[in-house]
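BUG-206 | component: ligand-complex export | severity: low

The export step for iron/sulfur cluster jobs runs without errors, but we want the raw record kept on the ticket for reference. Input record follows.
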Amino acid sequence: MNNSPDVHPPSVDNRTQHRKSLSLEDVRKDIGDCQRCPLGRVRTNLVFGEGNPKAEIVFVGEAPGRDEDIQGRPFVGRAGQLLTRIITAMGLKRQDVYICNILKCRPPGNRNPRPEEIITCEPFLIKQLQAINPKVICALGTFAAHTLLKTDVPITVLRGKFHTYHGRQLMPTYHPAFLLRNPAAKKQVWEDVQKIMKVLLPQASH
Ligand code: SF4
């Protein structure tokens, strides 16, 4: 594990540095009825992700929960409703952004994803990001931030700063489910979101 957060300023627009070589449809076809890890046998629905295929921002969570597994859609439970309110507060709609998870299938009982499951599934996330080509990735919660940044630095230290993930700007922040339990942390999330908005709409920050 690398304990040194890789901090980069949000000044460079990486979009021009990445060429689209595949589409989200290609990635979805590639996953198919995936059984590449044991979660494929216990899921109800594979939760690929949803939103604007050309989104400037992609929100990445940990894994589908119960509601998501049933509906086959990401972030549709109480935490998902709070994420929708955060997106609305940014002046965007859910259909403007893209929302997905590191794992596409629900771990039984919402247990933590296992390293071998992440190793097997993360390449699909990387391909999704290549296809979408966003300006910013927002990692939701400790697990997503640690998995994507390959670090165990606490989310309290990681959040609020831009890092790099496969050449893209990544902002870690608290997971909406954490905010449901700790409403006082909404203030910090709003600070993080405002930094993201300055990257998405630099003219609005002047
Ligand atoms: S979690 Fe990922 S790798 Fe595992 S079965 Fe689901 S889609 Fe395949």
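Assignee comment: Attached the raw record above. DSSP finds nine helices and six strands in the chain.
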